[in-house]
Amino acid sequence: DAKTTQPNSMESNEEEPVHLPCNHSTISGTDYIHWYRQLPSQGPEYVIHGLTSNVNNRMASLAIAEDRKSSTLILHRATLRDAAVYYCILRDPGTSGSRLTFGEGTQLTVNP
Amino acid sequence: DGGITQSPKYLFRKEGQNVTLSCEQNLNHDAMYWYRQDPGQGLRLIYYSQIVNDFQKGDIAEGYSVSREKKESFPLTVTSAQKNPTAFYLCASSIEGGGYTEAFFGQGTRLTVV
Q: Which residue of A has its CA nearest to B6?
């Protein structure tokens, strides 16, 4: 499975934008880039995903590098409720897509 | 409401006993997953199933067993062979076959073995 690399932790101030990076230099042409986040003592929740083009939804934006070897999750205005562990994972629509493998993620701290 | 339900939320067992964790989904998803999470760590895949009556080992399957007799249910048994069973266990489901599909997670079961 292609792997992702994320910083262990990041810090932000409330109401400021947050850019969470993810490196995936061994990404294959068919891998989708997914982001999930996990609040303390809860199951992860889906945030956003993309393949090649940048994506926006009500929660966040996903910016994907032209060579697809890195991506950035953008929270436009961080709130205290955005403090969580953010996971960047790759999903292949082929057989390996069923594995859904997580890494260690980035712990985001939001300061009031 | 559609979703994925894990029960119980907290579970205590004596060392040497087998224990079964429940996971039920009404999303009509083919794929289901079990993960283990230790404090301050990421999720590690235990078992996953793409279809009824079929499942595959994940990265840390030793000491665990599963069954998939019904599409909506994927129970996990933590056996006495699991050396360090105390952990947070998470179940998930997704539509099978699509790298573009999202996974839905339950709220987890916190197992403590004493």
A: A43
